[in-house]
Design brief:
There is one protein chain. The chain is mainly alpha-helical and 259 residues long. It folds into two domains: 113 residues, Helix Hairpins; 126 residues, Helix Hairpins, CATH 1.10.287. Helices cover 78% and strands 5% of the residues. It has seven helices and four strands, in the order H-H-H-H-H-E-E-H-E-E-H. Strands 2-1-4-3 form a four-stranded mixed sheet. It starts with a helix and ends in a 5-residue tail after the last helix. The relative contact order is 0.15.
Length: 259
C-alpha cells in the first residue's frame, strides 16, 4: 500500500509532458512485444487446437474400444448360451428315449423346440453384434490413423513454435523488463487507463501521435484548437472518437529513455 502511495506521489509530481513521453515510450516497447507475438502468428492457437483435438480423439478411441469389448463379451455370452442350449437339447432328446407316455414326450419336445429357438435367437444376436463390432473396428482404425496424423501435425507445430520462441524469447524478456521499468514511472490510475485502452484497441495502440491533422489510431480529423492543446502538453488529451491518448508528432521523434 505504501509503495503504491509513493508511486502515485511520484507520478503526480511529474509534469504532464514527462508523463506523455513515458507513456509514448511504454507504448513503443509494448508495440515491439506485439510484433514478436505477431511473428508467432496463430501458432500458439493452432497448437492448442491440435492438443484439444487429440484429447478428443483419444477419448473417442477409448470409448470405441470399451464398446468393442462389450460387443466381444456379448458375442461370447451368446456362444455360451448356444452351447448350454445344445447341451439341454441333447439331454431332452435322451430323456425322450425313456418317456412313459405321450404327454412327457410332448413336454420334452416343447423344451427342445424352445432351446432350438433360443439357439436361433442367439445366432441372430451374434450376427448383429459381429456386424456392429466390425463397424466399431473400422471406426477405431480411422480414429487411430487420424490420431497419428494429428499427433504428427502437433509435433511439427510445436517444433516451429519452439524455434520462433527460442529466437525471440530473449528480446521479449528484455522488452518486458524495460516496459516494467517505465510502468514504475507511471501513476497507478494512469497506468490502469493506458492498459484498458490498449486492451480494447484492435491494434494494441493506446498512445498515438497526431499525424496529418488526424488521430494516429482511428484517423479521424482533430480540430486545430485541439491540436494546439495537444502540442502544449499541459494536459493528457484523448481522441473523442476512439479514446486513445494523443501526443504531438514531435514526441514521437524526441522520445527519451529515463535514467
Amino acid at each position: 500500500m505504501a509503495t503504491e502511495t509513493k508511486k502515485a506521489q511520484e507520478g503526480t509530481e511529474r509534469s504532464t509532458e514527462e508523463k506523455l513521453r513515458i507513456l509514448y515510450e511504454l507504448q513503443t516497447i509494448d508495440s515491439d512485444v506485439d510484433k514478436i507475438k505477431i511473428l508467432r502468428g496463430e501458432l500458439p492457437l493452432e497448437v492448442q487446437d491440435l492438443e484439444d483435438e487429440i484429447a478428443g480423439l483419444q477419448t473417442r478411441l477409448s470409448n470405441l474400444q470399451d464398446e468393442m469389448k462389450n460387443f466381444e463379451t456379448s458375442i461370447q455370452n451368446k456362444k455360451n448360451e448356444i452351447v448350454e442350449s445344445q447341451g439341454l437339447i441333447k439331454k431332452y432328446q435322451e430323456q425322450q428315449m425313456n418317456v412313459r407316455n405321450n404327454r412327457e414326450y410332448d413336454s420334452l419336445s416343447k423344451e427342445i423346440e424352445f432351446q432350438t429357438l433360443e439357439i436361433e435367437l442367439s445366432e441372430k444376436r451374434i450376427k448383429e453384434f459381429s456386424q456392429q463390432l466390425e463397424e466399431k473396428k473400422k471406426l477405431e482404425g480411422e480414429s487411430i490413423s487420424l490420431l497419428e496424423e494429428r499427433t504428427g501435425d502437433l509435433e511439427e507445430k510445436k517444433k516451429e513454435l519452439n524455434s520462433i520462441i527460442s529466437e525471440t524469447q530473449k528480446d521479449e524478456e528484455d522488452l518486458k523488463s524495460k516496459a516494467n521499468q517505465f510502468e514504475e514511472l507511471i501513476e497507478p490510475r494512469l497506468l490502469t487507463a493506458y492498459k484498458r485502452i490498449r486492451r480494447n484497441a484492435r491494434n494494441g495502440l493506446a498512445v498515438v501521435p497526431v499525424e496529418r491533422d488526424a488521430c494516429g489510431g482511428c484517423f479521424n480529423k482533430i480540430p486545430p484548437q485541439r491540436q494546439l492543446d495537444i502540442k502544449s502538453r499541459k494536459k493528457i488529451i484523448v481522441c473523442e472518437y476512439c479514446g486513445r491518448i494523443l501526443v504531438d508528432n514531435e514526441i514521437m521523434e524526441e522520445k527519451e529513455t529515463p535514467e
